[in-house]
Amino acid sequence: LEAKRDKTVAALNALDGIECQSPDGSFYVFPDIRGTGMTAQQFADYLIEQYQVGVVAGSAFGDPREGHIPLTYACPDDVLEEGLDRIRQAVENL
Fold first, then answer.
1. Where are the extended beta strands (E) located within the chain?
2. C-alpha neighbours within 13 Å on the C-beta side of residue 68
């Protein structure tokens, strides 16, 4: 899982408007998407409607998570790669 975490964090940090810290121990990352100019809910809606990537707004986990979305990396490599590619496309097309 460490390799998947590192790959996920690197892929997200390579995107304009997204910052992602590496968690110490978890199956999730919580990237900050505020640099996209969208709220977490707007970004979550955009991803599902336009790119078929299902995430929830971090605000569902409490106010401190507004501007963030939780992403799990505990999935098969091909699923992770496809999801990260779709997120990349989504951000590039904003």
1. 28-29, 71-72
2. 19
